[in-house]
Structures are given as C-alpha cells and as structure tokens.
Amino acid sequence: MKVILLGAPGAGKGTIAKLLSDYDGSVQISTGDILRKSVKEGADLGKKAKAYMDSGDLVPDSLIMDIMENRIQEPDCERGFLLDGFPRTVPQAEALKKLLEKLGITLDYAINLEVPREVILDRLTTRRTCSNSECQAIYNIKSDPPTDDGKCKKCDSPVIQRDDETEEAILNRLEIYNEKTFPLIGFYEKEGLLKNILSLNSKETVEEIKKNLQTGM
Ligand code: AMP
Predict the structure, then answer these.
(1) Is the overall model pTM greater than 0.85, yes or no?
(2) Which residue of 39, 70, 104, 207 is most buried, as measured by CB atoms within 10 A?
C-alpha cells in the first residue's frame, strides 16, 4: 500500500504504521525517527534539526524534502510505504505531490486518524520510547509499561521520555499541528484521497484500514 497517515501528535500514526507494515511489508517512513537517528549519530542533519525538535517546532521544509526525495526512491519503497509524520505542512504536501508525479507513483489514500484531544494529551504525557534508535519501540506507563527497571522488552535498552514530550513541548506541538498540519485534511480531501477514521484502539483501526483497502474504501 502507498498511504499517508495523518493525525495529531499522539494519534497513533507510528503504532498503526508498524502494524500495517507487519501486515503487507510496506515500509514505514517516519521523518521523526529519521531525524532522531541523525541527532543521536551527531550527523549534520541532526545538528540542524535538534533545536527545532526539542522545542516541538517543525524542522524547515527544505531539510525534510531533502530527506524524503532520497528515502522514497530507495528500493524497499517499491513494495509500498506508510508515511508517518510527513507531510506536515501544505508546502510539503505540494512538494510530495510533484515528487510522486515525477516518479510515476500513485498514492492509495491519506488516512486521517481522528482522536479526541483528551485522549491525545493523556497518551503523550504517558508515552515512553526505547532509546535505541534502531528499535524506538513505544510504551505507555499506564497501559503497556516497559520492564520494571525501565528497559525495552524488545532490545533491553533504556526506555526514556523524549525531550519533546515535556508538557510545554507537547502543548507547542499540538498548537503547531492545528496551525500547520490540520490544513492537510482539506488538501487531501480536494485531492480525493482522504479517508477519516475515528481511532481509539490501534488494532481495531488497523483491521478497519485492511478491510477498506480490500474493498477499495
Ligand atoms: P514525530 O516523531 O513525527 O512527532 O516528529 C518529532 C519531531 O521531528 C517534530 O516535532 C518535528 O520537530 C520534527 N519533524 C518530524 N517530521 C517532520 C516534518 N515532516 N516536517 C517538519 N518537522 C518534522
């Protein structure tokens, strides 16, 4: 499948992308994961992006498009891809449209995960992430905690609270989402690609997406 996952921070895009990737081998492309890896490795891209990320601001569109132009042309994307956290602005969506046209790639859908604000806030403040950039498993201290000594159940690395998951950064990210990313829903509606899904439970949402893909939505 060739799908864009839209939704506020904490809507579950990453979790749903991982489950869909297990289902049909489409590759999850998370610009947030790519950027965090770059920061950890001390790469040039990471140095440019870190301050924006820590405060919950968006990284400039030009940096993001440089990443995506290359990533989407890698061979593993031929099987399909799930864009998680990209595009985040209308200029990114327009640039993606041009890029896909140039490459002769057609998107199946832009799936908008609708989640009530109070659920989002609760999820973000209780979310923890594996610090191993190759793993990045997501935990929730209430519903799916890491091991008793705070380690990842998959790779045994320490599980941490991300710098951009402090209360201040979370509120900033939600405000930026409303201002810059929410307009993408209208963008993809006009493109005839939008599918809204009320998403309260990741597994049920994935089942709904799979069913819809099989029946052509
Ligand atoms: P995420 O893990 O998707 O929440 O992304 C974490 C942070 O990385 C965001 O708060 C932004 O600072 C940055 N980021 C990720 N994807 C994008 C994007 N498409 N455009 C701009 N900034 C991004």
Answers:
(1) yes
(2) 39
